[in-house]
Design brief:
The complex is a heterodimer of chains A (about 375) and B (about 675). Chain A is α/β, with parallel strands linked by helices. Chain A contains 15 helices and 13 strands. Chain A has a six-stranded mixed sheet with strand order 2-1-3-12-4-13, sandwiched between helices. A three-stranded antiparallel sheet of chain A has the order 8-5-9. Chain A has a two-stranded parallel ribbon with strand order 6-7. In chain A, helix 11 packs across helix 14 and helix 11 crosses helix 15. The longest helix of chain A is centred in the N-terminal third of the chain and has 16 residues. Chain B is built from 31 helices and two strands. The chains are: A alpha/beta (about 375), B mainly alpha (about 675). At the A-B interface, helix 3, strand 2, strand 7, helix 8 and helix 9 of A face helix 3, helix 17, helix 22 and helix 30 of B.
């Protein structure tokens, strides 16, 4: 099906990894990928966040896998990532040379019963789950009107414009959050990436926005320093018991939960909150995952799991990953499985709530 | 003065970084790789950059940048070869070059056209870099002035170029442009995701058609088929001597035109959101409007090459502004560029707002590496142009199968499905008919390219404008009619008026005689039928997704009125009128092969690919075509086939691509490349 290319990697890089490979083989359960090419399917174009993420990991993974196979990132964009995912669903495990990188945009159509979805997360084998967070921010003048603890009540009458990629995408999480806070936010659809949304904010056309953590750090921090943007809240992060706490990347920012508690009319329990939390968990703490196809043997899963563990054990991992991925857990093994479960096994009530809300509020009918 | 105080030391550091032997060496390596990829139509910088990406990790930032920029910078230079020599737009940057460059090649002036194009490219690249060096410091607030209404007006200005390129019958040009826009709306609407002229049962169309396919289909296939039918070489006379020097002289004689078009290129390239796909058309329109003698445009006026080529390299420099300043890629290759810089700097250099403040020297390094890559690339291209221009004297029947192989491969990069080839064939057929009946293909392409931005900005400006008006009437008015918008409206109006007055003299695709009434009428009815269908299809989009309905319904209505007026004209006018233009009548004596017979060759390649996969089908196609159509010996045909297959496999292997599988492959597992 796929072309197998040999692409030599910078030789010096290969050395440090030999150790990891030897260890895995010593356990006698590893698969050897020497001389092979691992194809990493990304269901998006070369230009998105998933491409950045995969391009970050690919050379490191190549070093860490036994036999140092070449790792090639293949882009298969289309139909909001469902095309690539459907393709991957059709593949059977052969020799461990095909892996798949999913994103929140692959998870959401799955949860919302999008008619294009022909894939089943339950069939796949997760070997890595990368989390991220999100930050909502405002122009300085509007942020100045916020009440104590980020109380949104004073902004109730304001007309908000938000540049959105579509209500069924990850944007669902901030849109629902703002609605819970009583804001009137009109999403302007049709922008092509969150970067375009930020540009719309910078031009003064949009007056509310959110960015994922890494984009916030690189794109919005300079605006905050210049005084044109003020961070409002982060979506938060999950603690070990599944509670929403402050995002460790932004310890000084209140979480959405705190802001919601400070705002009258916003409840941190009940149907709406549960739905928001379920979709937040599906979209952010386990946003990007790496899978082996259906039918992968334990040896293959263990090999890739160990490889990703070895990548994170690198002495320089914290340094090189901080700027590009943010300070978020990169989960493997049982932790990755737990993350996958919480991201894809959303209670039916939450799904129903969001599906109804989408059709009432935005006229989106998923049929 | 303050500006210079920050700029000069940084500029000095930048040159210190660039002018090292190993940096220059990597730059040249990148340029050569870029040339090898750019020469083949449809394979732009994206393919090349993805190829480089795995090597980037751990490279020293400046050398890695040199390699990458070398590659990106020469793509709009080297794609000129395909545009001029074959009439195939090598990439979106050189579509307008085809209009005059290819007729020049047909007249035996290929070398002259190429060297004029390269000289212009070089100049444009340098002007772009010089302009950016100063402008980049002040660019941020200026770029932010371009809000959605301004972007919409620039898009409309781009569409107004249709006026110049409409051809002899302005109405036909208008309908062609509307048809292009409607083809551009196929797929999922950007606003509410409503489906237009597609369904989830046919997933291919849901994402819409890609520019590569439409560009190749509308320009390349009709030209290849037309040349094949005449069964001779591209150039109908012996190449003129002293080729390349005269091209450079042409450029020198038009240096001010080149300067103006370079500035157009930088300025349009700077504005994020539009990308570079209209720059060359705007430059072409400007060239035509400002020329005194317009009679030769479309049949080989060298100024028609100089204008667009000056702008398209300058645009690459301009495109760096949104990329570096805002972290927003102006094009697909720029997006990969961003992630590659992240790989290079290991996180310490992040493309985006902080780039200017913290890494100004680095920014200048990028700008001037780009300029230097242009110089190196141009010198190599000019040296090569004399030799490559000889391709035009080869008998076309020997060249065509090879070209068809390349454009099929390029089209297939769009979605990597057999449907890519079907779409290419379908659009190609439309292109052939439009060429035959003298419907403006440039107008169609401009419509297609600007369809998505026109719809997006209309909807967004409407939504944001409505919100501003709710706040207060003055607020709304100020937003919609900013000074920039008013200036753009005036420029557009002037351009339309001038364009309409001159359109009759400008035949972007040469003169066409008229034939009988029947064939042109049938084509018009077919076009009307499609537009009617598109109208009905979008009119039934329900109310909750009305944002996806308004635009196609509006465009289809305009087009239907145009079609109706054309029908009336056809009923009233005699058959010698331009409205009945038909190339079949004109070229009847030079065509040695029928249209349908020639097309059947390509249709059979398509069908065979669907059955046995692309490589098997291609092998059969090459062998039989060379033996039967070109009349060469079996031994020659076999050798040709072997080389062709080897070449395409080599290319696919380096780029890491597969070929479209057919029915056979779904039953039998075959080794690559037969998969």
């Amino acid at each position: 099906m796929f072309c197998k290319t040999l692409r030599p990697l910078a030789g010096a890089l290969a050395m440090s990894s030999a150790l990891a490979g030897v260890q895995a083989m010593a356990d006698g359960h590893a698969i050897d990928l020497e001389g092979k090419t691992v194809e990493w399917i990304i269901p998006f174009s070369e230009t998105g966040g998933s491409a950045k993420w995969a391009n970050f990991y690919a050379p490191l993974l190549s070093e860490a896998l036994p036999g140092n196979p070449t790792v090639v990132v293949t882009f298969m964009p289309g139909a909001g990532s469902t095309k690539g995912a459907n393709h991957f669903q059709g593949l059977k495990y052969e020799d461990g040379t095909t892996i798949f990188g999913s994103s929140g945009s692959t998870q959401f159509p799955y949860l919302l019963s999008d008619p294009r979805v022909r894939y089943e997360y339950g069939d796949w084998n997760v070997v890595l789950a990368s989390g991220t967070g999100g930050v909502s921010y405002l122009p300085a003048d509007l942020a100045g009107r916020l009440g104590d603890g980020g109380d949104a009540s004073p902004l109730a009458g304001e007309d908000f414009i938000y540049g959105s990629q579509g209500a069924t995408r990850l944007d669902l999480v901030p849109l629902l959050a703002w609605e819970m806070l009583g804001l009137q936010v009109e999403p302007v659809f049709g922008i092509e990436g969150r970067g375009d949304g930020r540009l719309m904010f910078e031009r003064g056309e949009a007056n509310i926005d959110y960015q994922t953590s890494s984009s916030f750090l690189s794109g919005v921090t300079p605006l905050v320093e210049a005084g044109t943007a003020v961070p409002w809240f982060s979506f938060g992060s999950l603690d070990a018991d599944g509670n929403i706490v402050r995002d460790p990347t932004f310890p000084d920012m209140p979480s959405f939960k705190e802001v919601c508690e400070a705002t009258e009319g916003c409840a941190t329990e009940g149907e709406q909150w549960d739905a928001w939390k379920a979709f937040f968990v599906a979209g952010f703490p386990a946003q990007k995952m790496v899978f082996l196809p259906a039918g992968a043997p334990d040896a293959a899963i263990a090999t890739f799991t160990e490889a990703f563990e070895a990548v994170q054990a690198r002495a320089d991992f914290a340094e090189i990953s901080e700027k590009r991925l943010g300070v978020y857990p990169q989960l493997t093994g049982a932790a990755a499985q737990t993350a996958l479960d919480s991201a894809t096994q959303v209670p039916q009530e939450a799904k129903d709530f969001v599906i109804n809300w989408l059709s009432d509020r935005y006229g989106v009918v998923l049929k | 003065m303050e500006v210079f105080a920050t700029a000069l030391p940084a500029l000095n550091d930048a040159f210190g970084m660039i002018l090292q032997p190993h940096v220059i060496g990597y730059l040249i390596l990148g340029v050569v790789m870029g040339l090898c990829i750019g020469v083949f139509p449809g394979l732009g910088g994206i393919a090349g950059l993805s190829l480089l990406l795995p090597f980037m990790f751990g490279m020293e930032p400046v050398t890695g940048l040199a390699l990458m920029i070398g590659m990106v910078a020469v793509v709009p230079t080297s794609d000129t070869f395909a545009s001029v020599l074959m009439g195939i737009p090598g990439s979106s940057a050189s579509q307008a070059t085809v209009l005059d460059g290819f007729p020049m090649a047909k007249k035996g002036q290929a070398a002259r056209a190429l060297s004029a194009a390269f000289a212009s490219s070089l100049f444009g690249g340098l002007v772009g870099a010089a302009f950016l060096t100063v402008f980049i410091l002040a660019a941020r607030p200026i770029v932010l002035l371009f809000q959605t209404p301004e972007l919409l007006m620039i898009t409309i200005f781009g569409l107004s170029m249709v006026g110049i390129l409409a051809g002899r019958v302005a109405l036909k040009g208008l309908v062609a442009a509307c048809l292009g826009i409607l083809v551009g709306t196929i797929g999922e609407g950007a606003s509410s995701g409503a489906l237009r002229m597609s369904s989830y049962d046919m997933p291919y169309l849901v994402d819409g058609l890609k520019l590569v396919i439409v560009g190749l289909g509308i320009f390349a296939i009709p030209e290849i088929v037309a040349l094949l039918r005449q069964d001779k070489a591209i150039s109908d006379r012996a190449p003129l001597g002293g080729g390349w020097l005269s091209g450079v002289k042409d450029w020198w004689a038009n240096k001010w035109l080149s300067m103006r078009c370079s500035l157009i290129g930088v300025v349009v390239g700077v504005i994020p959101g539009l990308g570079g796909s209209v720059v060359d058309w705007i430059a072409y329109g400007h060239t035509v409007q400002t020329a005194k003698d317009k009679s030769q445009f479309g049949s080989g006026d060298v100024r028609g090459v100089i204008g667009p080529e000056s702008s398209n390299n300058a645009k690459e420099g301009g495109g760096l502004v949104p990329t570096l300043l805002f972290g927003i890629p102006g094009s697909g290759s720029m997006a990969i560029f961003i992630s590659a810089v992240a790989l290079l700097g290991s996180g310490s250099i992040e493309v985006g707002p902080s780039m200017l403040k913290n890494n100004l020297d680095f920014t200048y390094t990028i700008v001037w590496l780009l300029a230097l890559a242009n110089v190196v690339g141009t010198i190599i291209c000019i040296c090569a142009s004399g030799g490559i221009a000889r391709l035009t004297s080869i008998r076309f029947a020997l060249l065509a199968p090879f070209l068809f192989m390349i454009i099929s491969f390029a089209a297939f990069q769009s979605r990597q499905e057999i449907w890519d080839l079907v779409a290419l064939f379908g659009i190609g057929l439309l292109g052939i008919l439009m060429r035959r009946f003298d419907w403006s293909r440039p107008a169609f392409l401009i419509g297609f390219v600007l369809s998505a931005p026109a719809e997006r900005y209309t909807n967004q400006a409407y939504q944001i404008g409505a919100s501003r008006f709710r706040r207060s009437f003055e607020d709304g008015l100020e937003y919609v009619f900013s000074p920039i918008v008013i200036v753009l409206i005036i420029i557009t109006l002037i351009s339309v008026v001038i364009g309409l007055r001159q359109a009759k003299n400008i035949q972007a695709e040469g003169a066409v005689a008229s034939g009988s009434k029947r064939a042109p009428l049938i084509f018009l009815l077919a076009v009307t039928g499609y537009i009617g269908l598109a109208y009905w299809n979008s009119a039934i989009i329900p109310d909750f997704a009305r944002m996806d309905r308004v635009f196609p319904v509006f465009v289809a209505t305009v087009a239907l009125v145009g079609c109706a007026l054309l029908l009336v004209q056809m009923m009233l006018k005699p058959e010698t009128n331009a409205v009945f233009a038909d190339r079949e009548a004109q070229e009847a004596d030079v065509n040695t092969h029928g249209l349908w017979g020639t097309l059947a060759w390509f249709a059979s390649l398509l069908v065979a690919s669907a059955l046995g996969g692309f490589i098997l089908a291609l092998a059969g196609f090459l062998l039989l075509f060379i033996r039967l159509r070109a009349g060469k010996s079996w031994a020659f045909a076999a050798a040709y086939t072997g080389i062709g297959i080897l070449f395409i496999c080599g290319m696919a292997a380096t780029l890491g691509r597969d070929f479209p599988p057919g029915l056979l492959q779904s039953h039998v597992d075959l080794p690559w490349p037969l998969t």
